[in-house]
Specification:
alpha/beta, 16% strand, binds NADPH dihydro-nicotinamide-adenine-dinucleotide phosphate, 291 residues, Rossmann fold
Length: 291
């Protein structure tokens, strides 16, 4: 069993991004700049955005963090996005989800200029991805592809089972794993909460990508010997042995599943850091387009 090490792979990719950024600055006088919008005080969202802003600094990108209280209206938020769309200094815009209930995710995502849609959530971005046209790829699925590529895992002909069908992870993942490319060329099954006898399906998988949001949901009896397991889930559970009283676990019962796998991602330090790499690569590409 080999651990797919998100920290090591992301360090490698970040050093490449840093070099390319220095070159872009020296040759074209252009510094990639990411704007992040955070609404409210959700601790997980605060941590994710903080990480993204810190990574910008590490890579030599500029960054702008716009913070708003939960009370901001949808109209006001759309106005802020308009301003960022019009600002030539800004290459990428990300809006940290979830948003408060009175604000429509779709309205906000649709308002972002597709040329600055570095999270890859806009309908035009996803439409282009679906048609195989050049586009930003949604950050988490992109990060997973970068991980598979780094370890030279040839997914052609594999049966890939994706559990979860969200617009930001599960659904784009199925598109990317089935496209005619490497990584890709897999035969893909998508599963969700209405899937019957999930274990019977996952047991036939050469590669399982779990994006469910349920702690340790994928158990050892659902996984065949030698499978590759990619765990996207980030779930906080109580743990009295920790000072904080809690810890993070994935959607996979790691301790029992890992011994059966050929490769597996841990949580944390697996897909999480790769998502940030996907976002940063998209921001660099956006900056190159904005020279
Ligand atoms: P969503 O809640 O949007 O989607 C969850 C999906 O899981 C849904 O499609 C749902 O099915 C499916 N599901 C729920 N219960 C079951 C079940 N019992 N059996 C089969 N399928 C089920 O979540 P996201 O895609 O946004 O995120 C998934 C997880 O990944 C979360 O833990 C999130 O925190 C994490 N995440 C991690 C990232 C990273 O960088 N590592 C980035 C983004 C997310 P249905 O559609 O039928 O409701």
């Amino acid at each position: 069993m080999q651990i797919l090490d998100g920290i090591a792979v992301s360090a490698h990719i970040k050093s490449q991004i840093k070099q390319e950024t220095e070159k872009l600055k020296a040759e074209k006088g252009k510094t990639p700049h990411l704007a992040a919008i955070l609404v409210g005080h959700n601790p997980a969202s605060e941590a994710y955005v903080g990480n993204k802003v810190r990574t910008c600094e590490e890579l030599g990108f500029g960054s702008t963090l716009l913070r708003f209280e939960d009370s901001i209206t949808e109209a006001q938020l759309l106005e802020e996005i308009k301003k960022l769309n019009a600002d030539d200094k800004i290459d990428g815009i990300l809006v940290q989800l979830p948003l408060p209930k009175h604000i429509s995710d779709n309205a906000v995502i649709n308002a972002i200029d597709p040329g600055k849609d570095v999270d890859g959530f806009h309908p035009i971005t996803q439409g282009k991805m679906l048609l195989g046209q050049p586009s930003f790829l949604p950050a988490t699925p992109y990060g997973i592809l970068l991980m598979l590529e780094h370890y030279n895992i040839n997914t052609a002909g594999m049966h890939c089972v994706v559990i979860g069908r969200s617009n930001i992870v599960g659904t784009p993942m199925t598109v990317l794993m089935s496209r005619n490319a490497q990584p890709g060329n897999a035969t893909v099954t998508i599963c969700h909460s209405k899937t019957k006898d999930l274990a019977a399906i996952t047991k036939t998988a050469d590669i399982i990508i779990a994006a469910i949001g349920r702690p340790r949901f994928v158990t050892a009896d659902m996984v065949k010997e030698g499978a590759i397991v990619i765990d996207v889930g980030i779930n906080r559970i109580d743990d009295a042995t920790r000072k904080s009283g809690s810890r993070l676990v994935g959607d996979v019962d790691y301790d029992n599943v890992a011994p059966k796998c050929s490769y597996i991602t841990p949580v944390p330090k697996g897909v999480g850091p790769m998502t940030i790499c996907g976002l940063m690569k998209n921001t660099l590409e956006a900056a190159k387009e904005h020279v």
